[in-house]
Each structure stands twice: as structure tokens, then as C-alpha cells.
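So, read this over?
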Amino acid sequence: KCGFAGENFPTSVFPCVVGRPLLRYEESLQEQELTDIVVGAACADLRHQLDVSYPVTNGIVQNWDDMGHIWDHAFYSELKVDPSECKILLTDPPLNPVKNREQMIETMFEKYNFSGVFIQIQAVLSLYAQGLLTGLVIDSGDGVTHVVPVVDGYSYPHLTKRMNVAGRHITSYLVDLLSRRGYAMNKSADFETVREIKEKLCYISYDYKREYQLGLETTILVKSYTVSILSYFVLLLYFYLS
């Protein structure tokens, strides 16, 4: 997510993913005038023709070169700003390595020439957005889930709980479930498609036993999802996720 200070909603929201054309598709891709690097939502449209990678794992940047492509896309293509004329606020999950923050700050200053950089923990900013300074924040994002107590605007690392299980892991597990039901799913090429299925069709059951019986005895939980000209009929057996 990226945007400008003072606005109520992000200017742009796109997946943190980088794609490179597969060798066998390079010739066909030339006709589409694509660059060597594809970033964000465009990767989903060309997922079967790209080798995709995720520069951030469990909230920690693992591939700084690819992360640079993400930032380039955010600053120049989405926000359309000159970084040297701006200051930037970055978010960071709690308990991340100090070296990760140091590298982020170094990149913002030396590569993009921002005039000011500030990094804040996501949980604290979540409370600020609600007009609060004190509270308990439970935040489950793409790669990491954490529970953070915040008092008077300060988090307490020694009381913070972190678990490296979040949305991306649920998506990966859903790929496995669909594969078991006979759908030809690839964890790389179809990952973004399955993520969309998860976000549009999946939910948390408030009556586990009832949902379980419905899944066994009826087709009431059958949902359809269309991808291009194909239609996937997905039986969402939520008790598998328990």
C-alpha cells in the first residue's frame, strides 16, 4: 500500500510480487512490449508466462534487488513523485531485525534521495488511525501475525508475540486443498489466482459443526469462480483448515 499523508485511503494497493518472463515465452512476450521486470497486479494477468518471486518473506525483506523494483513501481508509476522532494514514512512489523531497518533507511537516502525517513511499527500506526494511543493490536498481514500491546504510543517488544503464519500461508494451503480435489494448481503460476479466490469466497465459520455437516451432505457450500474463459467450481470445505 502506498499513498500521501492526509488522505483517508491509500492511493494504490498492489501485491508485492516481481515477475520475469520465462524463456519459452520471451518471443511471444516481445509482441506485448513488456519489460524484463513485471511488478504488482500485472503479474497476475501474465502469471503463466512469468517466473514470479516475493521479495518479502514473513515481513522481512529477503531480496533487496526485487524490493527495489517494488519501490520503483510505487514511487514512479503509482504515486508519480520525485522522491528528492518528499519525506517518507515506512511501516515495519515488530521484532524485525535491526539490519532490515538499516538497509531500508540506507536505500531511501542513498538511492532515492528522500529528504527525511521515518520507520514506525505497524501496530502503533493502526492505533493512531483509530485516534488511540493505548490498546492491544492483533495484526495478521501477508507474511506475519503479531499481537502488540501499545501504551501511550509506545510498543513493548518484550510483551509482543509474533507468529510467522499469515495470509500467504493460508493461500498456499488452499492451493494444496484445490490440488487434492483434482484442480491443476501451480503454487507459483496460480498463487495470485488462488489468493483472489480466498479473498472473495473464503470466510470464518461461526458454527463449525453445522458447516461440517453441510459440507458432507449438501452442495450448498459450492461456489463458482471464473478465470478468463474457465470456470472453477470450488467446494470450500472449511473444516480442512482447522
Remarks:
- The chain has a mean pLDDT of 84.
- Residues 213 and 236 are 13 Å apart (CA to CA).
